[in-house]
Amino acid sequence: MRNWRSSGLLPRLRSALPIIIFGLLALFAIHPWISPHSGGAAPRAIVLYGFSILGEVMNEGVFPAFREEWRERTGEEVELISSFAGSGTVTNQIIMGVPAQIVLLATELDAQRLADADLTQPRSWRNLPCGGVVNRSPFVIFVRGGNPKRIADFSDLTRPGIGIIHPDPMTSGGANWAVVAEYGAGLRQNPSNPEAGYQLLLGIWKNIAALSASARGARTEFEQGFGDALITYEQEAVRDKARSRFKLEVVYPRRTILSEHTLLLLDHNIAPGERELVEAFANFMWSEKAQRIFVNYGFRSVDESLNLENPEFGKIQDPFLIEDLGGWPEAKKRIIDGIWKNRVLKDLKQ
Amino acid sequence: MSPDIPDVSTAKTRPHSAIAPVGLLVLVLLPLLLMPLAAIFIFAFEGGLSTFITALSSPDAVFALRFSLFIAFATAAVNAVLGTFAAYILSKYRFPGERPLGIVVNLPVAIPTVVVGTSLLLLWGPIGLLGKFLGKFGLEPMFTPFGVLLAHLFVTFPYMLGSVKPVLDELETTYEEAAYTMGASRWQTFRYVILPALRGGLFTGTLLTFAHSLGEFGATVLVSGNLRLRTQTAPLYIFAQFEAGNVANANAVAAVLAVLSFIIFFFLLQYTGGQGRRA
To answer: For residue A336, what pLDDT is reported?
Structure first.
């Protein structure tokens, strides 16, 4: 034993350890390029950028279904290369030049920004099925288990002593939906009073306890125990309920908006040889198979009959769409900028 | 036997007097450093070993780890050469503008990595100063593995320089002069006289570069486009999974990164410790 150690085998082994470990790491890093199995061309890929809540359903549900269908039809294996972040962030990444071919945005406003930056034809998405809308989700209120503050509708959020967690309309697509939901709910409750929308919006915003950069961020904050109520997508709850992971409670307002999520194609990133594949995938999103997957993951389908298949969807007495408020360009100018930014935020400062 | 007795008695009293300060230090370090690190491992194995392995064997996680290692090796290799070259020039030559140049090459330490990412985008990106021009030839370095490599080379540049230049500065010029008098060329002198003396600095610098590249986030998130299976590094994967609420996936990869950094640190420590003993 002593002889063995003095022969220097152990120290030599110790000094060789870094070489061995880094050699193995290097082998792991490059083995796909040197292994004989990976020969042949890499499969063709579709590059998709989307807003955050769509990540799971696209990666785990819709794309695998499309890959299978494409394999059956053509025998070719295709790959999905995707990235998910807040809708505003995705829009900015695309303006900076990421190679996205298909984009899924939380609101048509972000699509409009891409058109303004000359990255797509104005309103190009309107030529797609359903005006480019792939799915919907109503805006609802999350409350603590047992609903201790007895919140039943948006109007209850205006009561003093209630703390609301809200995404920030400056950065979050979902927050823009929330603002028009709040405004529209007030307006529709009292159509004879033109100030009713403004009054409900102001009442809710008086109780904002914290703003978060994204809808996901707001939810995380709420789950950490801040605030009494959170205004967000129904989808956030439905999917978790199905897996019995949901510890909060959902309150369906009597009147609320159904958000609409817009798909668009970025032609300058689609090579002529890829167009058929990219368009096939885009069109697949409106197929019954894909729409059913959306419903399974908690989104409301553009095909109303499929929505009956998910028992977790709650009933809304008076749902409305952005068209009912004049469409996004009009709503942005009149409600987000005109009323929320120029009146509500200013009144709150006083 | 008897000579040991006084040793034992002093050994007994010394830890006693150190209890308060050492305890205070541990108490401060516990929530600051030790507990957060422990939390990664506790949560990574919360669902049992099988969950941990499933999380690690998803194609996205495997790709992210492999891509990170690949970039780290490439960054370390390129900067080992570039950094040594820069250190050699800055150490052996006297020229006007030497000081400003010395500051510039060390600047990446001080610049926030997000700023590095932005500046690279504004130069090489499709709307950037050079990128607009390159795009006409179909060259788009940003949002590709090459763009990630560029960012990592930028961010880690000073580590090699910082490890090698001090050694070069202290190296006795007499050996070099002797080599020249014996008729050695500049390259031969470098290869047979200087390089062997640099081994320690090269080792430390390469490890530091490797470790930093493995963990780089701020610049990478901007220049990579964060595409899974294409340009998503391990830190980006951790962040994306955390954002999406898949904490288990994020933790599994975080645990692997933590272990890798422990290994690198262990080698560094062993090397510097070994040197200290020899000195």
So the answer is: 94
pLDDT of residue B193: 86
Q: What is the pLDDT of residue A216?
A: 81
> Is residue A48 domain-shared with residue A175, that is, in the same domain?
no
Q: How many CB atoms lie within 10 A of CB B11?
A: 10
**What's residue B2's pLDDT?**
44
SS3 of chain A: helix, strand, coil, percent, to 5: 55, 20, 25
Burial of residue B268, with CB atoms counted within 10 A of its CB: 0-12 exposed, 13-18 middle, 19 or more buried: middle
Distance from CA of A303 to the nearest CA of B (A): 27
Which contacts (CB < 8 Å, 24+ apart) does range B170-177 have?
A: B171/B197
**For position A267, which CATH number holds?**
3.40.190.10
In this prediction the pTM is 0.79
In sign, the C-alpha dihedral spanning B200, B205, B210, B211 is positive
Mean pLDDT is highest, among A244-253, B44-53, B150-159, for B150-159
A19 within domain boundaries: no
Q: Which of B28, B44, B60 is the last residue of a domain?
A: B44
Is A30 within the bounds of a domain?
Answer: no
Partner residue facing B229 (CB), from A26, A56, A79: A79
CB contact under 8 A, A56 and B244: yes
Q: Nearest C-alpha of chain B: how many angstroms from A72?
A: 23
Sign of the torsion formed by the C-alpha atoms of A328, A333, A336 and A340? negative
The pair of structure tokens assigned to B236 is 């980006």
3-state secondary structure A137-185: EEEEEEECCCCCCCCCCHHHHHCCCCCEEEECCCCCHHHHHHHHHHHHH
Q: Cβ contact (<8 Å) for B125 and A93? A: no
**Domain annotation covers residue A308:** no
pLDDT value at position B3?
A: 46
What region does B56 belong to: left with phi over 0, alpha with psi -120 to 50, or beta?
alpha
Shortest distance between the Cα of A234 and any Cα of chain B, in A, equals: 16
Handedness of CA A65, A67, A70, A74 (dihedral sign): negative
| Cβ <8 Å between A96 and B66 | no
Nearest residue to A51 via CA among A130, A128, A111, A117: A111
Instruction: Tell which residue, A304, A299, A298, has the closest CA to residue A241.
Output: A298
Q: What is the mean predicted confidence (pLDDT) over A149-157?
A: 95
Instruction: Name the residue range of residue B65's domain.
Output: 49-278
Q: B112 with B13, same domain?
A: no
B152 in the same domain as B227: yes
**Looking at residues B55-69, what average pLDDT do you find?**
93
pLDDT in tens, A21-67: 889 999 888 887 766 555 456 788 999 999 888 988 999 999 999 99
Tell me: pLDDT of B203 over 60: yes
Query: Between A and B, how many residue pairs show a Cβ–Cβ distance under 8 A?
Result: 66
Residue of B nearest to A30 (CA): B70
Average the pLDDT over B130-147 and give the result.
Answer: 86
